[in-house]
Prior knowledge:
This protein has helices spanning 14-23, 61-70, 92-98, 100-112, 149-166, 190-202, 223-236, 252-261, 292-297, 306-326, and strands spanning 5-9, 30-35, 52-56, 73-78, 120-126, 171-177, 180-181, 209-211, 217-218, 221-222, 240-244, 250-251, 272-274.
Amino acid sequence: MEPDVILVVGANSQDACVLAEILANTEEKLILTSFDSNNSVPFHRNFFPGNKIVKTKEYSWQFFLKIFSDFKIKQVYIFGSLSIVYDPGTSKDEYYKSTIGLVESLTKALSISKKIDSVMIFHSSSVEMFGKNLVLQQTESTRLNPQSPYAEGKALAHQHFQDLREKGICQSINGIMYNHESKYRKEYFVTQKICIAVAQISLGLRSVIPLGNLRTYRDWSYANDLISAVRFGMNSKLSGDYILASGVTHSLEDWIDAAFKSISVSNWSNYVEFDKKFMREDEEYIPNANVSKAQRVLNLTSTLSFEDLVGHMVGHKIKELRSQNAN
């Protein structure tokens, strides 16, 4: 009999790598999809080459219908969408296509294949849906106030699954994910950019890091903690909305401080220089996440402190650089 498998939408994402890492020593099988118009090797393949990756030019309902016909899917993790960080110039239509368009195509295919009531779905929502100028603590019922095409698309996808759940059509989890990091974080994210630069400084490969506003505030979590909580919820079929975060806010300056302390540098001011081209307008806010529901229901816990998370990422980059130089 054909075994049940897990479908992951977005093989190029950090979260796909984290999920594969968590499941590496289990009997679970992953089918990953990669939206890749340039025929490059999916990011995921660099770390977990054993899992099957199905490439597509478009996340259409016809593509998903074939997936559901070819494989016996028991769970779907939706990690795939265009990143707000990678290309701020991406059009509204492109963001909508990768968010609400994607989930509508997927659920249409599930409906046509008559599997929508038997497959558990996780959708990666975003803190960006709450907008800026946050004052009150955010909970799962906080009003959505998206202020960018990316956030608007995420909010529509989030509400799409809320509507389907309320109608009893599907079982799903909306994970409202705040910033989360791991060794798989891509290099165009400022957190990884800092970790790479600090690793290079520790090895004498560079002397300065150009950065913008250091008073940017975020709630940074260890990605493995969030995905482990999601995995628990999916296996237990705990449908609903959940804020996934650490519940603790730090500044970018805190991140830099922790990164340099991990290489035993306390006074890092001479290693950082201001560069106005890295300033991002109209995006400053201070998140304040209430994670009590996820802690209570999904067993969300923190296995790495903020400082240990940053040190873990810097240490990984130091090992990578040493290995590259040795070769």
